[in-house]
Amino acid sequence: MSESKKPHFLALGGIDHTYRAIGELGAEYSLMQSRALVTDFQIKSARELLITQYEDTAKMVDYARAMHARHPIDYVLCLSEYPQLAAARIAAELGLPSNCDAYAVEATRNKAMLRDLLDRAGLPTVPWRIVKTADELRAFRDEVGGAVVAKPVSGAGSEGVHLVVTDDDVTKAFGHADGIGRDGVLAEQFIGGQEYSVESMSANGRHEIAAVTRKTVTGAPYFVEMAHVQPCCPGEYRDQIADVVSRMLTALGHRHGPAHTELKIDEDGLRIIESQVRLGGDQIWEMTLFTSGVDVARETLHALLGLPAPERRPLHPVVAIQFLQFAKIDADRQAIEAACASDHPDVLRVRIDNSGSEDMLLTQSGHRSGYVMVRGETVEQAEALAREQAEAVTRKVETMRTA
């Protein structure tokens, strides 16, 4: 560690929750952040703030090296998806402890690398292949003998994901996926069943399941997530989920920090679909904090600093999110959010992300208009309230439209 009185983190991306936790631990941080995510708190609290993009990792390493020369850095921290490759490279080049291991980050950002690792580790996944043309995609579909999914090898969320059933789907799906990613198109056998995500926390290579979230998606052809409820782990699969996720994280060499793993369960059992060594998006990290007391940001900081894990204090038995979609309205986001606020005691938040969709075409998660987050005593109660409140928001938006 440096001679600085305070441990000094170099952080990439992320939100104020993480940076408040750094300050509360008596540490300090310098920050590399994209312009859209910079906040007043970060401007005031960061020792250094560099507004940048993350695509040029070599340039990011140079920036970090200069920061390190001015104010020696002790740890590299990144809990978000897009800056992870840069964070892993910086940590490796500067020889600094980090939650971002280069191999784990690369393998989980590249869907083909992860599928290969799962196959070699004997972990349950689906048949897959890298396809370079629409004809190769068609051939894989015919070989599988049923529907397949085309997706970018490198991509986030539901970007570029498309179901392939008929010959007419092939060209459209290949172009959709190939236009998003940079590393080609991955085709995998489509399986039905229920989709779940698993939030885990690792410290010194020991892995623990923090929460399991059940997801509701739009279905074919784009599979955009529209609702979450947590905790919602199918009891008969509890031990298997813990086993396969822990084995996968060990195979990845993941030692510190959160991971977000997506899987499906159908009549044939459990299959791992994807994993990322980061916190769960779509506020799943916050749902996990509410229902399990696991604060993945704070626990990652404790693990890197060699401190005992912080006390966990669950706040709510169940939390559910229902995402919103409404047609474009002539009002700004803040005005819509103010008009749609709820006074229901179990509504935790109504969030409006944009002023609606021009064409109501929902092809990726970024096309959603916002969300409602609620708490409940049971899964059924929380899900019903989330749907009810989302419908109320939609009605309020329509009232604004006609006013």
What does this structure look like?
There is one protein chain. The termini are far apart. The mean pLDDT is 92. With 403 residues, this protein is an alpha+beta fold. The chain has four domains: 8-100, Rossmann fold; 127-189, ATP-grasp fold, A domain (Dna Ligase, domain 1), CATH 3.30.1490; 192-315, ATP-grasp fold, B domain (D-amino Acid Aminotransferase, Chain A, domain 1, 2-Layer Sandwich); 317-402, Alpha-Beta Plaits, CATH 3.30.70. The chain contains 13 helices and 16 strands. It has helices at 16-24, 40-45, 57-70, 84-94, 102-109, 111-120, 134-144, 167-178, 238-252, 284-292, 296-305, 333-339, 379-402; strands at residues 8-12, 28-33, 49-51, 75-77, 128-131, 148-152, 162-164, 185-189, 194-203, 206-217, 225-230, 257-266, 269-276, 318-324, 347-352, 370-376. 36% of the residues lie in helices and 25% in strands. It has an eight-stranded antiparallel β-sheet with strand order 13-12-9-10-11-14-16-15. It has a four-stranded parallel β-sheet with strand order 3-2-1-4, sandwiched between helices. A four-stranded antiparallel β-sheet has the order 5-8-6-7, with helices on both faces.
The number of domains is 4
Anisotropy-based shape: globular
- For the largest beta sheet, what order do the strands appear in spatially? 13-12-9-10-11-14-16-15
- The helix content, as a percent range, equals 25-40%
